[in-house]
Amino acid sequence: MKKLYIYLSALFIFSCSIESNENKIGIVIHGGAGTILKENMTPELENSYMIKLEEAIRTGYDILKNGGPSKDAVEQAIRVMEDSPLFNAGVGAVLTNDERVSLDASFMDGKNLNAGAIAGSSYIKNPISAAIAVMEESPHVLLSSKGADDFAIEKGIDTVPNSYFITERRLNSLRSLKNINNISYEDPFLKDSKYGTVGSVAIDINGNISAGTSTGGTTNKIWGRIGDVPIIGAGNYANNDCCGISATGWGEHFIRNVVAYDIAAQILYKNEDIINASKNSLDKVKATGGDGGVIGLDKNGKVTMEFNTAGMYRAHMDNDGNITIKIYKD
Questions:
Q1: Is the dihedral of CA 190, 119, 237, 289 positive or negative?
Q2: Cα distance between residue 217 and residue 184, in whole Å
Q3: How many other CB atoms are found less than 10 A from the CB of residue 320?
Q4: How far is the CA of 265 from the CAs of 13, 211, 284, 318, in angstroms?
Q5: What is the dihedral of CA 316, 302, 82, 114, to 10 degrees?
């Protein structure tokens, strides 16, 4: 009887140990920040955004709930948004000065600090998947333009004609800007100024954090302009020791302030709270003349969805499956 008691006690302790080592899961996404005002949004369009945001975050959450890795959750959540014309990523992305789409994306694995990114792609259907492939199947971190497209073709990643990405809405927006010779984040479809980058951060049951970001950049961009999205540490960062971050905003300012890593560094070296760290970094962006927002999760699953614009498309699901979906400021 004594041996049985000892055995059952040991089994109980072992099971508790396993349970305590299981981290809480969580996922957060964004679909861009900017001057997103309710008065400029029709009920039908607002509902479309809410539905798509919910689809994206539930897609990622279901992977985590079933014990899947954060990498897969981030990838699949972003692919939902890349495949929707509502966002400036993948199909429906904004156009360059020469009336083409040029796509950027990045991904980072918080477990080993491995990362991959592509910039200036013309043909990759889902840039986030290509960024992951760069991380996993090449010795490099960042591939650009024709090199990125050639890599995708070689690896069997889905490619499409550039015309696949172009929508009438984006073409009209570009042509109106070309008449005044200006670049812009303006979206006349919504009468709003919006940074349409999409992104996701997730933490899985093993405590691994992943972060991904994808975008079409700015309307009427020239000279092969590249923003913060494919720049690890600026628009995207993940480290299991602190957090994962995905940014959306005026890319030049996010590069100059190394925003994603700046948030992580505050947590690592100052033990700053992720929300306060996000606010501090966005204050630095504002000080140099930029704006935008960030999403993130720290190593304990605490979420940040901070922005210094009028709104940000965003959603979060926690360990218990509680869901938050918002567009405007509270």
A1: negative
A2: 10
A3: 9
A4: 36, 16, 14, 24
A5: -160
Question: What CATH code would you report for 23-112+163-328?
Answer: 3.60.20.30
Collapsed DSSP state (helix, strand, coil) of residue 199: strand
The end-to-end CA distance of the chain, in Å, is: 61
Q: Which residues are catalytic?
A: 197
How far apart are the C-alpha atoms of 152 and 299, rounded to whole Å?
32
Cα-trace Rg, the chain: 20
Q: How many whole angstroms separate alpha carbon 142 and alpha carbon 216? A: 16
36-61: string of b/e by CB count within 10 Å (b at 16+)? beeeebeeeeeeebeebbbebbbbbb
Model confidence, pTM: 0.89
Longest dimension (CA), the chain: 88
**Nearest 5°: CA angle at 196, between 192 and 202?**
135
Which residues are within 8 A (CB) of 168 and not within 5 positions of it... i.e. 6 or more apart?
none
pLDDT tens-digit profile of 79-97? 999 999 999 999 989 988 8
Domain assignments of the chain as residue spans, ordered by start: 23-112+163-328
> Nearest-CA neighbor of 30 among 321, 320, 309, 231?
309
CA-closest candidate to residue 248, choices 227, 265, 225 = 227
DSSP 106: E
For residue range 286-320, list pLDDT tens digits in order: 999 999 999 999 999 999 999 999 999 999 999 99
What is the bridge-based pairing of β-strands 114-121 and 142-144? parallel
